[in-house]
Here is the input.
Amino acid sequence: MNKVVKSAGSSAGVIIQWAEDHKLETCFERAEKLKPCPIGETGACCKVCHMGPCRLIGKNAEEEARGVCGATLSTVAARNMVRMIAAGTAAHSDHARDMAYTLLAASTGEAKDFMIKDVKKLYRVADILGIEFEGRPVNDVGKDVANTFLQDFGRQLGELNYCKRAPKKTQERWKKYGITPRGIDREVVEAMHRTAIGVDHDPDHLLSHGLRTALADGWGGCMISTDITDILFGTPKPIKAEASFGIFKEDEVNLIVHGHEPTLAEILVDVSSSQEMIDYAKTKGAKGINLGGMCCTANEVLMRHGIPTAGGFTNQELGIITGLIDAMTVDVQCIMPAIVDLSKKFHTKIITTSPKAHITGAVRVEYDEHHAKDIAKTIVKMAIDNYPNRKAEGSHVTEKFPLIGGFSHEYIEYMQGGRWRGSFRPLNDAIMAGRVRGVVGLAGCDNPRVPSTGLHKYLAVELIKNDVLIVSTGCGSAACGSAGYMTPETALELAGPGLREVCEAIGIPPILHLGACVDNSRILTIATAMAAEGGLSDEIAGMPAVGIAPEWMSEKAIAIGCYFAASGVPVIFGGESPVGASSEVTKIMTEVWMERFMGALHFEPDPEKMLEMTLNYIDAARERLKLRKYEPGKFGAERVLMDMAARREIKNAAVPHAGVGGINESEG
Ligand code: SF4
Ligand code: MSK
Here is the structure.
C-alpha cells in the first residue's frame, strides 16, 4: 500500500518520518486517528442551548429535521457560520486593540521601548482619519490616531472610521443591504446575541449580520492592526529572508517567535542582536543568537527585518522535533497546545508571553509593553542558558530557500513608477492588455488533513503559469516561501509569458508576500487603489480577482473570507463546507451574495476544480469589463513598464538606494 503523504514540504516529510520512527505523535498522526465528526463538519449540529446538542440529520433533514426548539437546519448552519465569523473577528480585532494601546503608550512615553518609526505613515493615517497633523508634535498626532482607532471598538452608532477608505460604490452596496459596520465590539456582541437560543432564525438575516461583523474585521481590526504596526515598526519594503527548517543553526542559540503579535518580537529582534547578549551566548559555547519565526509573528518580523521563518502552522511541532530550538515564545492564535508535551521530549523551552494565553506546563514570562526590553532580555537569556542542554538527537534538516518579502501596498505603488510616478496604472494596464490575466489572494492556513502546504503549492504554480499575479499572506506565504517560490527567478522558471515580462521589468517575484493574516487588509487597500486608478472596475466588485484559502482551518480565515465576499471578491475555500448540510445557506453564500455584492464564499475540496473556478471567475470579470480576451503570449498595446534604467532617468532628483533583486527601496 502506498504511504499517505502528510506534508508536501520536502523537509517536513523527512521530519514527520523521523517522528514516526521515534514514536512521537504530531498533528498529522492525530488528524489520521481523529476523523472529523460528519455532523458538525457540515454545520448540522447545534449546541447553543442545553436542550441539545441537537443533530439535524436524516434523509430529509433539510425539510423535516428540527431541534428541540424547532430550529431548522438552515438556521442552525447559518448560526454556526456567524459564530465562526464572530470568533475570527474577535481574534484579529483584539490583537488590533492591543496595537492601539501600544501606539497610545508609545505616544505618551509610557512604553519607553517603543517609538513611532514611520512618521509618513502616521501622517497618511491621520489624514484619512481627519486628524490635523501639520506642525504638530509627532507623539500628539500618535495619541490622537490611537484614541480615534480605540473609538472604533466601542462605537455604538455610525460607522467604522475606515469604511470611508472603500470605493464609494462598495460603500453604497453595504448601505443598501444594511451591512455597514458600526463598532467592532458591537458587531461581535450582536452576532453572539443573535445566534443565542431563540433570537434570530432567518438564515439570510443572520448571515447578513455575519457579513457586517466580517467587515468590522477587514476594514476594522485587520486594517487598524496593519496600519499601527507599520506606524510603530515601519512600512515594509522588499527584503531578503529565508524559509524552511534549514534556518535553524547548529552552532547558535535558536530562539523562535511564534503566534501573531509583533510587539514583543520586535524588541526581541533588537535584544537578540545586542553585543551584550551575543557575548553572553558565547560564554555558553554558542557562536551567536539566531532569531527565527513561525506562523504570523514570523511574518511580521520577516516583513520588516528579514528574520527567517521556519514555516507555517503545521511546522510548529516539526520545528521542535529538529531538536534545535532552544526556546520558543508563543503569544496568541494558532499555537497548538501539543507543543508543550512534545517539547519535554527535547530540551526546548516553550514560553507563553500573552496575558491572555497560557498553556499548562509551559514556562510563563508575561509580556508588558511598559517593560518590554527587560522582558525580552529575560527571554533571550533563558534561550541562551538552555543552549548547553541541547542534545544531538532530533531530525536535523538543512534545506532552506531564499525569498523576498516586504510588499506593502505603499511599496507596490512605488515599484510601479518610482518615487515621483508611483501608481497602480502599470498593473491596471497590464491586466487590461491581457499580460496579467488577473490577481489572486492566496492566503489562509496550512492543514494536516490534506498533504499540508500541497494545495498552496499546486495552486501557486498553476496560477502563475496562467499569468495570474499572486498576493499572499499568513501561512499561504510560508507555504510558498518554504517551496522556494518567492523569488524573481520563479517568474522566469514558472510564470506564463505575460506575467514573466511584468515581473522581469519590475524585478519582482510572481508571488508577493504581503505579510501576516491581519495584512489581508493590504489586499483591500490594493483593490481600492486599482479601482481608483481606472480602466478596470470602479469598485472592488467586478475586478478580475479571486481570494483562495485552500487549506483553511481557523475561524479567522472564515472572517477573512467573508469580508472579501462582502467587499466584492469571489472567494474559494478548500475542504468540506461547514454549511454543506444546508443547501439554502450554501445558496445564500454563493448566489445571493453574488447578486448583492458580486462576492461569494464557496467551499471546494478538489484543487483542480478550485483552479478552474478561479480562472472562470477571472475570465468572466474580464469579459464583463470588456477587456481583451486572455490568450497566453498575446497582448494588447499598453504603456511600457519602466525598468530600472528608465526609472533612474526620471528620478535623478531622488536619493538612490541599494536595490533588492532589482527593486529599489521605498522612500518610506
Ligand atoms: Fe437544539 Fe434549539 Fe437548543 Fe440548538 S437552540 S441546541 S436546536 S434546542
Ligand atoms: S497563522 S490563521 S494558521 S494562516 Fe496567521 Fe496561519 Fe491560519 Fe493561523
Q: What stands out?
A: Residues 46-49, 51-54, 67-69, 71, 76, 197 surround iron/sulfur cluster (ligand 1) (CB under 6 Å). The longest helix spans residues 73-108.
